[in-house]
Design a protein that fits this description.
The protein is an alpha+beta fold and about 250 residues long. It is about 45% helix and about 15% strand. Strands 1-5-4-3-2 form a five-stranded antiparallel beta sheet, with no helix packed on it. Helix 4 runs antiparallel to helix 5 (about 185-205). Mean pLDDT is about 85; it is low at about 1-30.
């Protein structure tokens, strides 16, 4: 029988609003913003032109094969910033995507809808081995292999912690070790334990145990994403900021 502690279930429900805010602010793989006019400010992709080669068709999964069918602009009142609204047509399957993008200081960033529901690669700034487990967790969730998603997400977290020199005889001790060293703040420590607790049953199955539910698998993968945002994405943005200020 699949069992979760009352503490774990309560925390999962408590963090559901946080997930919603995270998605609303971050969208699909972009940086945190306080205004849409901030899109492309010192971050994103090099150059002032839309990086079509970075856009994947959500229907046929071909990358970069687009033509621009429609383009509109909105200029910032009393400013020079321009927001671009493009409709792109895939050259492989003739499907359409909408792209909202903007450029500034020889950088640009974009949002695409719809986006692919399949995952083909991990973010470039993830370590290769961590990214491999992350990708398997994501693919397992999309294909509804929920036990596999739970195990892969838990393994990805453990590998990421060990890459940060976590010490301990098990995942619980490794999480607490990095928290004791100040690498994981209390909230990330709790989130890491959530992944561990939710993934334990799939990683250490018992006879006649119920399957991991879709909701539990989705929560484990979300917790993993939160942790990797802290361990990998945030340091990358800080590094980019410091490099920009040093110029």
């Amino acid at each position: 029988m699949l069992f979760f502690s009352k503490r774990c279930i309560v925390k999962r429900r408590m963090y559901q609003p946080v997930f919603a805010v995270y998605i609303a602010l971050y969208g699909k793989g972009s940086t945190l913003m306080d205004s849409w006019w901030s899109l492309g400010e010192w971050s994103g992709f090099a150059g002032a032109k839309l990086a079509l080669y970075k856009i994947t068709c959500p229907f046929c999964l071909e990358q970069g094969k687009f033509s621009t069918e429609f383009h509109a602009e909105k200029r910032q009142p009393n400013g020079a910033k321009v927001l671009n609204f493009d409709t792109l047509k895939c050259g492989s399957c003739a499907s359409f995507v909408q792209v909202f993008w903007s450029a500034s200081h020889d950088h640009h960033d974009f949002k695409v809808q719809p986006w692919p529901l399949k995952y083909e690669k991990a973010p470039d700034h993830y370590p290769e081995d961590v990214g491999r487990y992350w990708l398997q967790a994501k693919k397992s969730l999309v294909s509804r292999n929920y036990d596999a998603a739970a195990v892969m997400a838990r393994s990805a977290v453990q590998l990421a912690l060990r890459a940060h020199d976590a010490k301990g005889a098990n995942l619980k001790q490794e999480i607490d070790d990095l928290a004791g060293k100040g690498i994981l703040p209390p909230l990330m420590q709790e989130w890491s334990h959530n992944v561990r607790e939710l993934g334990n049953d799939s990683a250490h199955p018992q006879p006649s145990q119920a399957a991991t539910t879709a909701q539990d698998a989705a929560d484990i993968v979300k917790f993993m994403d939160f942790l990797f945002e802290y361990l990998y994405s945030l340091p990358r943005r800080i590094k980019e900021f410091r490099e920009r200020k040093a110029v």
